[in-house]
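Case study B.
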Amino acid sequence: MTTKASRAAFGEALLELGARDERIVTLDADLSKSTMTIAFARAHRDRAFNVGIAESNMLGIGAGLALAGRIPFVCSFACFLVGRFETIRVSIAYTNANVKLVGTHAGIAIGEDGYSQMGIEDIACIRALPNVPIVQPADEVETKQAVAYAVEHEGPLYLRLTRQALEPVSPPGYRFQLGKSVVLRPGNDVTLIASGGTVFNSLQAADRLQAGGIKAEVINAACIKPLDEELILASAGKTGHVLTIEDHSLAGGLGGAVAELLGEVLPTPLKRLGVHGFGESGDPKALYAKHGLHPAGIADSVTKFLDRRGNCTGSNMPGS
Amino acid sequence: MKPGIDAAGLEAIARACRVQIIRMLAHAGSGHPGGSLSVIDLLVTLVFGRLRLDPERPHWPDRDRLILSKGHAVPALYAVMARAGFFPEDRLVTLRKLGSPLQGHPDRLALPGIEAATGSLGQGLSVAIGMALGLRLGGSAARVYCILGDGEIQEGQVWEAAMSAPRLGRPDRALHNLCVILDENRIQLDGFVKQIMDLEPVVEKWRSFGWPVMEIDGHDVRQIDKALDQAEAAVGGPTFIVAHTVKGKGVSFMEGDPEWHGKAPKPAEAIRAIREILGVSEGGWDEHLKRDPALSVLVAELSSLEKR
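Model:
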């Protein structure tokens, strides 16, 4: 298995699934070459619709197609798609239309194009909708399974995909299940929960930590909603320290979801890593370094987080 | 027009629905009478004169679809649906009450027969286009009707949709199964459309986007029906009908007054409105009520609201 962008794996999966299922249609807003639906569109010209640069209309048409029995994949950059939140909210979510929302180019990892093209608030927005699961696969295997699941899932669903190539991380025989996360590496000292493009970096951070004697448990949370509460609580209970690592705003994303869970059920020291402020143009690796999402940054945050806990007792506790 | 119904029959149903609209809003104490009364003749002519629907099977795949994009006028749709048998008429008074399927704006999941959640203005046409396209892809002969408000078409999404519908599906699956009707009552919440953000020239705008446009009196059921005939005969793409209407039509003190866009009538106002809708003079009202026990009960029910 080689590295592959999840948008590319999505395009391949869609082509294959579309050949078997006549109900599948795609909608694009002049980005089919970027969302990778172009292969499907070439193979099934009568089932691929490019509405031009008009995302709100695309979303509404998707709702109508779903209500007439089709299975539409409505695709754009995550920021442009979820930016038309009001249409998603009423025409798709409240209507419970069987629309597959596909947001590509997630996060600051798109790099040079800069903030206006970066989807970094999309998870927060979609999480607020009661009936829309959020799935962010971490590699090719998981992406293809997630796309196949999306076809079977009755109701709206949000698939968050990356522009950048992703290293394989899924264990042999892995099966995607909605609401389930997977422990990629077991450990007792600290829990690292990552999703999508930050999963591989978290595994690499775990390697670095291992060298320093810290055994990190790494969880791939492909399902940000519904969260695998059981798995996360078990891990948090075991390690007593949790970090979330995501290419998304610090507000309302995976870190927010985990904070809500732990805060209500099992208060556990938590450190959220993610995007501070707006994104900006730059080399993707440099941007990840700036926001501490590269392996060294994640490992460094873990070390500081554990040190602080170890050194602080009683009235010296931070925030006391 | 469907067999077994004529213009006089449609007009009688529209009158009865107007009475129910007033009744519902008086019970609810809030809602949108003006736009409900401007759209009711269009809805009645569609549902009772045209649409292939089965209230027993609201999800029948080959039913015609009706999307009321101007969702705030949903009391008019509820009155029509109750009359058509989608739910008992006595449920109309639960409008806007906690737990009622008659939500303040259309909710597809709450009430079978509602095709899409609307009321966040500007969204319904896109959904209607998707439905029309989906039905064509699935080989269904069902038709899709979408009603827009004139204030509503100030929304940008409407023009994205307007641009796309005449082009989508061509050539093999052109959307000739889609008919869009503009309830052009010339008033929006804040005042007259002309003063808030003038839409003229409306007809030319839609024509320039590739739509054949008809203009009719939206309160004349014969004109409405004839336009729907023409829309149904169209090939090659969707049709647009500009229905000139009067906001608050049928109630003298509501007609043409922006105040009645979103204000419910008080019980005494509701009773006067119903009398006017039925065309009864003030002097003849008591006598009229004696001859119509059901109406008498309805009026008593409204009077009792006054005392609450």
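The radius of gyration of chain A is 19 Å. The remaining cases will be described in the next quarterly update.
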